[in-house]
Each structure stands twice: as C-alpha cells, then as structure tokens.
Amino acid sequence: MKLCRVVGAVWGAKEAGSLGGRKLLAVRPVAVASGHSPADISADGERADLQDGIIVALDQLGAGIGEYVLVAHGSRVRDLTLGPGVPTKDVVVAIVDSANIDLDLLAEGGAS
Amino acid sequence: MMLGRVIGEVWATRKNPRIEGRKALLVAALAQDGDRRTPTGEVVVAFDSVGARIGHVVTVTWGSGARAVFSGPDNRWVLVDAAVARIVDAVSVERDGKEVEERED
Amino acid sequence: MILGRMVGTVWATRKNPRLENFKLAIVRPYFWYNPSHDVEHVIAVDQVGAEVGQDVLVCVGQPGRWVAGDSRCPIEASVMAIVDSVEIERGTENAPVAPFALRSRFLPTTLVRVGDGGSTARDAGLHETDGGTP
Q: pLDDT-based confidence at A7, cuts 50/70/90?
C-alpha cells in the first residue's frame, strides 16, 4: 500500500458503466523519504511533502480532499473490495488518522 | 522468471512461522542481451531451494512457480514469494546465427 | 520479498473491515523490484512485531495477503521477518543503482560485509567506479 494525500476528485459525465458511480479520487503519494515531510502526518497538520504524479483510486470509504489515505494496488485487491470487472486497480483501503515517521531513520548510512 | 546474481544472504530469527527454515538470498537482477549481462539495478529477496551461494547466477521465479519449487502438486498453503529455482550453469545464446552454450565458470 | 527499514507507523480507524486489528508499518526499501508505482515507501501490515528502526523483509503481492491465514485481505504488502543481519560480499555495498529514487548510501542497519571483495562484486558490475561492464 502507499500513503497518499487526496488532492482532488475525478468526475466524468461519460464513464464505464461498471464504475457504478463510485467515487474516483486523485491522490499523490507522500514523499516519505524526501526529508522535507513533517514527522507527524495528519489532515489537520502541516502538509506532507508529495511526490509528483497522480494516482486515480476508487474510494468506498468517503475520504475528502486534504485527507491522507492508504491505496492498495492490484486486480486481486480490486476483486476483494469492489468486485471483479470494475475498471480500476487502485483502491482506497483506509483513511489515515495519523502517521508518524522517525526522520532520523531516513538518513543515509546506517551500517558501520 | 528473472535472471540474477546472488549478492548476499539475509538472516532472520523472528519471522512468520510459515517461512520457518527457508534461506533468503539477495539477488541482483541481470538483463541478458545476447551474451552480455548487465545489472538492472533492481534487487529482490528470494528463497533458496537449490543451495545457491554468493556469486552464483540463478533464475528466480514468482507465484505458482515459486510454490511448486518448494512443494508438490498440492502447494496452495506454501508461503513463498520469490524463489531461486535454478543455478545457471550454462545459458544458450545466439552467436553468429547458431545457438551455442556459454558455460559459467 | 524486498528488504527495507521500518521508519514509521500509520494509524487508521476508518478502513476496510478486513484490515481491522492490523498494525501498519511504513517501510523504506533499501532495494526495489518491480513496484506497482514509482514510490519511495511501502505500507505493510505487520504481524511479526517489528519496531521502528529495524530492518525487515516485506512480502509483496499474493503471499503478502496470506496474513494470519486469510488471503482475502485487500492488502499488497506484509512484513514477513525482522532481519538479524544482511551479509553482502565486501565491495558490493556500493549498492546497485536503484531506479526508484533511492540513493546508494542508504544501507541496511544490519549489514555485514563478508568475503574478500573479489570477483563476485566486480563481475556483478556493482562497483560505482566501474564502467559497469560485467
């Protein structure tokens, strides 16, 4: 799974019927290792550093813009959450309350 | 399946009991172009089934192939991610339009 | 499996019911293989009891789902083991260039160098100073 921030929603008048009107979210992965992210990540806190690139993920949990979510990838994950035949492979499996990163552990080296 | 070179070994005592007794090897992926092999930069941890050691060139397999390496036909409950399936002794490559065997020394 | 360092934890109450009671670890990989997206971390379910700072082996894909014997968890990664040591032949620790934004100096905390740094490391083309020709 990836830790991502919801940056928008994707709407389309024309969409594959099998999407069934489920919500598509545009999310960006948190740049965990950039060294610029805060140690504590939550919707109320300082915005985390984000990687470039948007992942479009299907959401059944009701995440809002600015919230952090866990996105899982895979056809099997899709089958387990949405059912087969839904045209996406990225699914929101959790809305994050908070995440904590020990920034010291991201430093290079580590082996003497 | 992936071609790779064993570059290390991983030791762990606290682990999921379903992988007890398995030796984990670090394998650096190799891309083969004719008779040249170059590392791709990717590294995977795979379970050993053939006694491979650091320096060996091996093939790594995933999924049902990996489970088959460790068990018989009824292997649904074998918990294996990637497995070293074979130590490569010789690889057939095309040279001058003919297939020749290149031995690993 | 991939080798990485546990660098943090995620807490979530609103989630897929099959993730109930699962501890979620933030893992920074040392090495990567074929990730689904170009990211610098993986969130893995942890049932082995890893702690922040430890080197871990993470299983990705279907075997990662066989956590607690239930393959119906909609996850893509789980911690399979806490690493005691990683043995790499001396010389190889100028780690291979990883294609996904990992810098080569991020090395396992449990790294142990073995051997004489001879042909294996050179043949693997893994020295930064080499032209890279195997």
A: very high
Put simply, the answer to whether B11 touches C126 (Cβ < 8 Å) is: no
Mean pLDDT rounded to a whole number for chain B: 76
Q: Do C52 and A110 touch (CB under 8 A)?
A: no
**C2-82 falls under which CATH superfamily?**
EutN/Ccml (2.40.50.220)
ipTM of the complex: 0.88
Judged against a pLDDT cut of 80, whether residue A96 lies above it is answered with yes
* Among chain A residues, CA nearest to C77: A1
**Considering its fold, how many domains does chain A have in total?**
1
pLDDT > 70? residue C125 = no
B58 interfaces chain C, CB cutoff of 8 Å: no
Q: Which residues of B touch C1 (CB under 8 A)?
A: 24, 44-46, 81-82
The predicted model scores a pTM of 0.83
**CATH number for the domain that contains residue A45:** 2.40.50.220
User: DSSP readout, chain B?
Assistant: -EEEEEEEEEE-SEE-GGGTT--EEEEEEEEEETTEEEEEEEEEEEEESS---TT-EEEEEEHHHHHHHHS-S--TT---SEEEEEE-SEEEEEETTEEEEEE--
CB within 8 Å: B42 and C99: yes
